[in-house]
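Researcher: Next sequence.
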Amino acid sequence: MGIMLVVGFLVIVATIVSRASRMGQKGEARERAGDHVRGGGAATSEEVKALLAPGAPFGTLPVPHGARVVSATLSGDRLVLVVEDRGGSSVMIVDQRTMQPVGALRLQGEAAR
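Model: Next structure:
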C-alpha cells in the first residue's frame, strides 16, 4: 500500500514538471513569432515569413478597415475566415496553396449582426 502511494505521488510530480516545461516552450515560441502582446504590438510580415518553411506560400488578404477576424478554419485545401465589421459578417474563402481568395459571402439579416 505504501509503495502505491509513493508511485502515485511520483506520477503526479512528473506530470506537473512535464506540463510546466511545455508552458515554457509555448512562451518561447510566441516570442520567436514576434508576438508582442505585452507591448501591444503585432508580428510583422517579415517575422511571420521567417517562421514559414522555405517555399511556403505567403499572401496578403485585404480586410476592410475596422473589421476583425472572428474565426479561421481549415477545410481541405481552403482557409475559411469569418470577418465582422460595422455592416455585419462576411465569410472569406482562401486557397491554401496559392493564398488567393476564391470566394466570399456577405451574411445579411438580423443573425448576421
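Model: The two ends are 61 Å apart (CA to CA). The helical segments are 2-32, 45-51.
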